[in-house]
Amino acid sequence: MITLTPRDVLPDDSTAGTLVGRVWLPQAGGPAVVAVRADGVFDVTARFSTVSALCDEGDPAAALRATRGERIGDLEAILANTPPDRRDTARPHLLAPVDLQVLKAAGVTFAVSMLERVIEERARGNPSSAEAIRKEVVRLVGDDFSRLKPGSAEAAKLKQVLIEQNAWSQYLEVGIGPDAEVFTKAPTLSSVGTGMDAGLHPKSTWNNPEPEVVLVVSSAGRIVGAALGNDVNLRDFEGRSALLLSKAKDNNASCAIGPLLRLFDATFSLDDVRRMDVGLTVTGADGFVLEGHSSIGKISRDPTDLVAQTISAVHQYPDGFALFLGTMFAPVKDRDAPGQGFTHKRDDIVTIAAPQLGRLVNRMRNSDECEHWTFGVGALMKNLAQRKVI
After folding, report:
1. How far apart are CA 54 and CA 46, in angstroms?
2. What is the rounded CA–CA span in Å between residue 82 and residue 194?
3. Distance between terminal CA atoms of the chain?
4. What sign has the CA pseudo-torsion 151, 157, 163, 166?
């Protein structure tokens, strides 16, 4: 069971930055856009009906600071009421901090994860084959692509060499080729927040968390802030076929974002994101502990390049989008039998943390056991209209 306090959730500098969240308000029958401040949590829905609308302001951080809102309570009480096992449905609880934004994700953006995708492909989703294939792949292509610029002449030359050695892969294509892999992670409004259960497809037997930074981007393509995310991944499904990507990535509660959205202001910028280290801890009911990290400084493509490859003249997002930047974390630590690697077990607690963004904490359950997603775009519009905020 998860227990959350402000210290567990907030950035290291607490409420010094401009922090945005969403809270379910039982009395309103729907969500509120909130500002999280030192003196409490404030409902600003009367001014910004959605987080998407706030992010489309000329200066979202300044606009939020200029809006006092209505205080709805202490963050501590709202957090304590968020985990589903102990929730009082008559009191507010925290949600994921994005709403109408399309949930997008970039894949194969780090050298280490790129190699693991090649291994998954060759193993055809069988974890027992992965270690032998890992050694062979490293022998053929090495294990350090960090200095290789995707789409460069050097990358094209390497591609030709690997093709001649029958070692080329579709994952190398998006890892070092000119075009990034950007896919739709999950439906709008379907993400879960901190303290909530995150979902795994019940047929998956080889899966892992993916600790990532999530950029929040306005409809004009301007990056306005960031949060943490878990791009839950089914290695067996995607390893069997890349065409199973949607089933590997998009299941009930398989997209976790939080704990809050930190807007860019004088305390936090895109350069802070570029320097960010994202930590991961998995704690199992069986006593197993897995730790790792992902350093954005080692990303192969700059965040601005990934955003530019997502929104352009050929693709628009009128309500903006949230973009997972990818991860360098690929767990290979054996959990059970030697050579079997890592996979989740029921009730694993996953904590994804970064000093500037706080901690995203989720309990892992099968997707059909997680709270079913029932409040979609239509329900949101109806609710906001009834509250006379749109």
Report:
1. 11
2. 8
3. 38
4. negative
Cα separation of 121 and 169, whole Å?
8
Residue partners of 381: CB distance under 8 A and separation at least 6? 390
Alpha-carbon distance 288 to 335, whole Å?
Answer: 7
311-361 pLDDT, tens digit each: 999 999 999 999 999 887 777 788 987 877 899 999 999 999 999 999 999
Q: Among 52, 55, 71, which residue's Cα sits nearest to residue 18?
A: 55
| pLDDT given for residue 328 in this prediction | 75
Query: Which amino acid would we find at residue 279?
Result: G
Closest CA to 2 of 95, 75, 96, 86: 86
Task: Report the distance separating Cα 313 and Cα 296, nearest Å.
Answer: 27
Q: pLDDT at position 235, please?
A: 85
| Per-residue pLDDT at 272 | 98
* Burial group, residue 108, by CB count within 10 angstroms (0-12, 13-18, 19+): buried
Tell me how crowded residue 145 is: count the other CB atoms within 10 A of its CB. 20
Determine the residue type at 205.
Answer: T
DSSP 102-148: EEEEEES-SHHHHHHHHHHHHHTT-GGGHHHHHHHHHHHH-S--TTP
Per the structure block, which two tokens stand in for 278? 């994202």
Q: Residue 288: which of 327, 340, 249, 213 has the closest Cα?
A: 340
The answer for residues whose C-beta is within 8 angstroms of residue 104's C-beta and 6 or more apart is 182, 183, 184, 185, 310, 321, 322, 323, 324
Tokens of 258: 């939080």
What pLDDT, on the 0 to 100 scale, is given for residue 95? Answer: 98
199 within 8 A of 230, measured Cβ to Cβ = no
- Say whether 261 sits in a helix, a strand or coil: strand
Residues in the chain predicted with pLDDT less than 70, given as ranges, are 108, 110-125, 128-130, 133-134, 136-148, 155, 158-168, 170-171, 174-175
Element of type H or E holding 231: strand 223-231
Is-contact 34 21, C-beta < 8 A? Answer: yes
CA pair distance 78, 89, nearest whole angstrom: 11
pLDDT at 163: 66
Separation between Cα atoms, residue 209 and residue 206, nearest integer Å: 11
